[in-house]
Specification:
272 residues, Phosphorylase Kinase, domain 1, two-stranded antiparallel ribbon, 9 strands, globular
Length: 272
């Protein structure tokens, strides 16, 4: 199914899920490009979120990741409908994003990450396999035509070195940027929207280091890398390599502004 086909069916999918779970839902949240997410209320008055996803390999096992975390630092999964790629989730209220806070955001993330690193095997995609996919993806000249060829070469080399050497298998949130941590009542902050992988801890800092919400400058990027790796006892060079590799791999989409920003992060990281 293409994204355009899914969008054409989205209203019917949402209606089916709302009927299944007896939900009243309101205006969708602004932001998700490949999913529908909206605040909703159950028949007994519980505040929840209805999320209907575009079928994509990065979010394929989101429900299982939330089950493994079981609300420990992350939003709770209340129910799942695999047929419609839909999730019924705990609602984080007031729900403002960590990106709206000051530099204490890094300390919040330092506290959350170790709680997310639970042992993980099947059914999650391994970081080793995903790195191999990115490696091949970046060797396709049609996909990388708009990117700086030197950055692509660096990323391909890093992914080729790092991927085969992964030995650890903990659950990773590969899109843990400032907008995916929300203020809540059950806990001060809860993680949402995992795109789960199984792999090594060093990879976890990649989305945080490049998170524009937490400051987009050479100094801010290096400060995040240094702070996170020091506080969490991570190998800085592997973390830096993973950030460059994934960031360039995630720069091949249609969003030219995002690609330019991602490439700038990679340049800053290559400039040690």
């Amino acid at each position: 199914m293409t994204l355009a086909e899914w969008r054409a069916q989205r209203a019917d999918l949402v209606a089916a899920c709302a009927s299944r779970w007896s939900l009243t839902h309101w205006t969708p949240y602004i932001g998700p490009h490949v999913s529908f997410a909206a605040p909703a209320t159950t028949a007994d008055g519980a505040a929840v979120v209805l999320k209907v996803q575009f079928p994509h390999h990065e979010s394929e096992h989101e429900a299982e990741a939330l089950r493994r975390w079981d609300g420990d630092g992350a939003i709770r999964l209340l129910a799942a409908d695999p047929e419609h790629h839909a999730l019924l989730l705990e609602r984080a209220e007031p729900g403002d994003a960590l990106s709206a806070t000051d530099t204490a955001a890094l300390d919040v993330l330092v506290g959350l990450l170790p709680r997310l690193w639970v042992p993980a095997g099947a059914p999650f995609t391994t970081l080793r396999d995903e790195a191999a996919r990115w490696h091949e993806h970046l060797r396709d000249p049609e996909r990388t035509a708009r990117l700086d060829p030197d950055l692509v070469t660096h990323a391909v080399g890093l992914l080729g070195d790092l991927g085969p050497s992964v030995t650890e298998s903990v659950l990773l949130h590969q899109d843990l940027h400032g907008g995916n941590v929300l203020r809540a009542r059950r806990e001060p902050w809860l993680v949402i929207d995992p795109k789960p992988l199984s792999g090594e801890r060093e990879f976890s800092v990649a989305p945080i280091v490049r998170s524009v919400e937490l400051g987009h400058s050479r100094a801010a990027v290096h400060r995040r890398l240094d702070h996170l790796t020091a506080e969490l006892g991570l190998d800085r060079e592997r973390a830096r390599g993973w950030t460059i590799g994934q960031t360039i791999a995630w720069s091949t989409g249609e969003d030219a502004e995002l690609a330019a920003r991602h490439q700038q992060v990679a340049r800053w990281l290559l400039d040690r």
